[in-house]
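Sequence in, structure out. First:
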Amino acid sequence: MTDTAQSVSDNLSEKIRTVLADGATASLVTFVEGGESTGAKLLVTTDGSHDGDLGNDELNRAAASEAAKFLNTRQDARMLRVGEFAPELKSLAEAQLLFERIEAEPRLVIAGAGHVGASLARLAALVGYRVTLIDDRAEFVTRALFSAPSEQAIDLIAADNWTDRLRYAVGNGRGVSVAIVTRGHKQDEDCLRAIASANPDYIGMIGSKRRTNIVLEKLREEGFDPDALMKVRAPIGLDIGAVSPEEVALAILAEIVAERRGGGGAPLSSWRRR
């Protein structure tokens, strides 16, 4: 590798580290085959800026535009021929580019370590989420209760103050889902009030339709952004007829995954009955 190529590679690696550290999202475009630039890379961020070089300025622009569309699909990877998205680049029409999503592992912050919260933390950890489980009862977030190998990465926090702990855990909200499932309505309300304006990717709050409507209306009256409150999933989860804490946790995680992946939550077999 030449010094110039090494410098470009080092710069892209640093840019990727920054994307991951910031909780942002980007697409890494790699020239896979079909030309002299095999192995060349272009990193495209969600604001449209890009770093790297695919060996052709027109291809860089076309690939950056296609990368923006790719990021909107929520797919993890896609292989395309240049001719599929930039037919004007006839000399490169058969060249193949790999579009890959670059983002940190999804994070789930759970407020409440009761039966539902604990079950949700365990299930989400198995699915691949980086989980933070918070409770104001220290005995509910001890490592002894989460000792299985798959549970070791769960971050357990005893909160003496819901507001400060939640805000710190949620951070800038990018790539973060929040499930509010505490032991009581007052605690649920306090948690929602703490992070309603933080703009995480997902906020859900447990409770009946009546109770959650009362809480949301109260926050509206306090001056919280109505649009932000409209995004709150309350009652939390998909309707799967859940009864046990584990089933409720599954319903919650299903909704979180659907939101992240752009799924509709409908049965995959529904087309058979149309």
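Second:
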Amino acid sequence: MSDHQARYPIATMCELLGVSSSGYYAWVKRRPSRRAESDAALIEEIGAAHTASRGTYGAPRVHAELTEKGIRVGRKRVARLMSQAGLAGVSRRKFVTTTVKGDSRQAPDLIERNFTAAGPDRLWVADISYIPTWAGFLYLAVVLDACSRRIVGWSMATTLATQLVLDALNMALAMRRPRDVIHHSDQGSQYTSIEFGRRCRDAGVRPSMGSVGDAYDNAMCESFFATLECELLDRHRFKTQPDARSAVFTFIEGFYNPRRRHSSIGYLSPIDYERRLQRHQSTAIDPDAHQPGVVLAAVKDKPFGRPQEEAVLDRRCARRPHHRAGRDGRMAPPGAEPKNATKQRDQMTSNQTA
């Protein structure tokens, strides 16, 4: 009515809409409700968090950002306000593989789709992807730590040569200096080459390879490339290869490793998760430290990487196991007594009396 009052009388519009003119004027003079004012303030915070994530975060990660700032708000309310403000996260497209099987000897599969690691530098996963530019393809090789999801090594080149994966591995070795780490990849010709196998042997790295044509055997690294495509490559077009190199460097070292939140590690960034692991380990080693213990475990049970038996799932909805009771086998709550327990007890008593 306010938008059309220059063309139509307010009384006429009120009569057509079935409202009173006095009610309309009272509504115009009325202050916004506390809920509306709170929503307006939250929309500003949500917009700032969404902009800081380069427009990639959806409601779950924006909710985690607000929680870290001390703003207590429900996730569904965040989703509603994001929809109201026209904000949304990015979605992923179908992944295109670049694996070419080599004729060299393949390493055994040492993990068998179990991508859980008790600590950093115990399991690395590696793969190659491509970045389209107007000047041609640019290839990217990465080495990812399975515990923290951190990119510990990466390299870029214009060809799919063995030196591409060697540079990524050398960067990871120089940064982390691991001991007896497992390096898992596909059976691409770069990873089955003699040069790569010799470098792994000299550095004490245990190579591991999945089967051919099965993305689930290297699902964790495939997931990173899907994130890269979704949050960077699908949203930008690079004219030159130096522009692509600069953008990928900024994404990995400026956003992904230090800031991007991962649902599988409690909505922490890879660097923050490793810092929390170090604090937890130092607290466990020092008996005089009086700091509250922190439960660090995956919060989701991924289909491609189930947690180990000793892992603790940080889920409040975890249910206690139920026991079956009665002949019909129906579920009974823990501690419930079977239906025929009284009959068995009476029969045992009669036998002892006899």
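Remark: Residues 289-333 have pLDDT under 50 and may be disordered.
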